[in-house]
Amino acid sequence: MSLHRLRSRQGRRPYAPWYRAARARLHEGGLAGPVRSLLLPLVPQTGYFPDFLTPAESAEGIDAGLKGILATSPERVLGEVRRLSGAGGGPSWGARLAEGDARSRLARTIRAYHDAVVAPHGDEIQAQFEAERAVRARTLLDGGLDGLLRSPGSGAEWKPPVLTVGYPVDRDLYLEGRGLRLIPSYFCRGNPVALADPRLEPVLVYALGHAYESPRRPPSTDRGRGEPLSALIGRTRAAVLSAAASGTGATTGELALATGVSASSASQHATALRNAGLLVSRRHAMSVLHTLTPLGSTMLAAGLPAGRPRVPAGRAPLPTGPGQATVSASGAT
Asked: So where are the chain's domains?
C-alpha cells in the first residue's frame, strides 16, 4: 500500500509529509534504484499483484512476513508471477523469483525499504491502529457483529449473510465457514482490498479513518518537547491520559466523568494532549473517542500522578476476533 502511495498522485495530500520524507530517504540511502527496478514492477499501481508478497505470517511483524515470503513454494510463486504477467504487468525476470537467491534479494530490498520509509513513522502508524481498534471495539459493543460489518470501507452494506463492499472488479468470495479477518491499513485509500486467491485465509484490508484534528506529519526528534509538553504537568491531564488508556479508549464525556471536570474542560485538556502527540482522537457516532499514542503510553508509564480515575460503567474492553459471513465484493463505488 505504501508503494501505491509513493507512485500515485491520487489521494496523496494526506500523505504529503510522508511522501517527501520517503523520497528523500530512498535517494539518500541509495534505495531509489532497487525500489524502482525490483519492487514497483511487482506491485502495479492498479489491478492484481501477487499474494505471496502479503503472507499471513506478516501478522506477526515484518521479520515473520519476510520469512513467509522466503518459505513460499516455487510453484506458487511461478503461478502468481504468470498471473501478474497475464494481467498486463509483471517484470520479464519475474520467473526467477522461484529461485532462492532472487527471492532473498527481494526480501532484503523489502526490509531496506521498510526500514527507510515505514519504520520511522512506526509510532504514528501504531497510534492510528490503536485508535481504530478502540473505535471497532466500541462499534462491536454498541452494535454487535452487524454494526461491525457495516463499518469497514466506504459504501459497505451488510445484509446477512452477504457483505457487499466497493471493489474495482465484480467478485464473489465465499467463506464456507471460515472467518473473515478485517485489517486496517494506514496507506490504503479508497476501496478495500482482498487476496486474489480464494483458497487463502479470507481477509479484507480497508483504509483507516482519518484522525480528528490529527494531521499526518513526519516524526521529529523534537516532538513532545518544549511548550506543548510543559503544559501537561498537572494531575488533571495525567488523569486524562490514564482514563484514555482503556482498551476501548474514552469519549470526552467519559474523560470528564473520570477526572471530575466539565465536558468543555475535558475537551480542552484532550486538545492540549493531542497537540503534544500524546492522544489520537477519532469521531465515533456522535462522540469523539480518545486513545493513547505510544508517546502517551510512555508518559503514563513514567509515573505521572494520574490519581484514580473512575471507569464509566459498561465500558470494558472486549477481545475482538474475526466475524463470519459470506462476502460478496461488487463494483459499487
From this structure: 2-121
